[in-house]
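I am writing to request your help with a piece of structural work I have in hand. Thank you for your consideration; the sequence and its tokens are set out here:
=====
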Amino acid sequence: MLAVTVDGVDLLLCNVEGHVSAFEDQCPHQANPLSKGNLDGSVLTCAAHEWSFDAHTGDGVNPATACLRRFPVRLHGDTIFVDLEGPDR
């Protein structure tokens, strides 16, 4: 996991087995930074109240009805491009 700020947007980058995803660095529960949480395999867990999410898709694991704001990512060599204009969802 890597927390970065791009053009004023706090992002969390997750690399799971070579698949890079970008999410808003904010839990939908109470807006706590997800970057303070834990990434175990492909499960991202918020440190504040242990809500968990699929680090590939941002879909909720617990609770299943929650989801993260995901941004499109494109890789070019070692450079990660994140499209801030429109979230994937």
